[in-house]
Structures are given as structure tokens and as C-alpha cells.
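Weekly puzzle thread! Below is a chain. First person to post its structure in C-alpha cell form gets bragging rights.
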Amino acid sequence: MLAAACGDAVVAGQDAPRVANTLCIAMRGTPSETQVMAMDLAGIAVSAGSACSSGKVKASHVLRAMGYGNDIAGSVLRISLGWATEAEDLKRCAEAWQMLYRRTHKNQKNKAA
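Winning reply:
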């Protein structure tokens, strides 16, 4: 759902065995901090980077070790689902992320023009 909301999204470790309730997804060109703030304003709690680097502003060393460059490592969100997460929560998250994508990438296209 989220990857479809942003055409060039990158799901970190998508082909690797991983925990089913956690997603690390990158929106290229939009810093993690910007995404976290936008999602917070939409009432959605997410974090930037991996759990072992939470609270840090710089790009995750874990993602770099996985082979991702700064463009991905510096633009990821970590989204974790809990026992009370419902389908409507996921829909609202995807909609908020897509709105941010449209807003930030529209601005980037305007700057390039």
C-alpha cells in the first residue's frame, strides 16, 4: 500500500526474512526528519531509521551496512504495527505519506523547472 503511494519508494530488506509487523521504507529526496514531522502532524507515530539508531538524526549505519547509499539511508521511515493497529490506521498512514510525497515532489519539480 505504501510503496504504491510513492512510485520510487524503496522497501529496505524487502527480499530478506524480516519481522512481519515492521517496515522500513524510503521516500527518495525527502529527509527522514521531514517525513517524521509530517506524519506526526497527521497523528501517525513513526520513526526514522532502524531501531538501534532511533533518536539520531544522521543516516542509519545499519542501512549503509545493508548496501544502501545516503539517498536511501537518509530518507527512511520505520513503521511498526501493534496489536491494536487496524486496517483504517494503515489506510490513513498511506494517505498521509502520499500527500507528503505529492507536496515535496511537486516542490522539487518546480525547483527543477
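Puzzle host: Confirmed. Bonus trivia for everyone else. Helices lie at 2-5, 32-41, 61-65, 70-73, 87-112.
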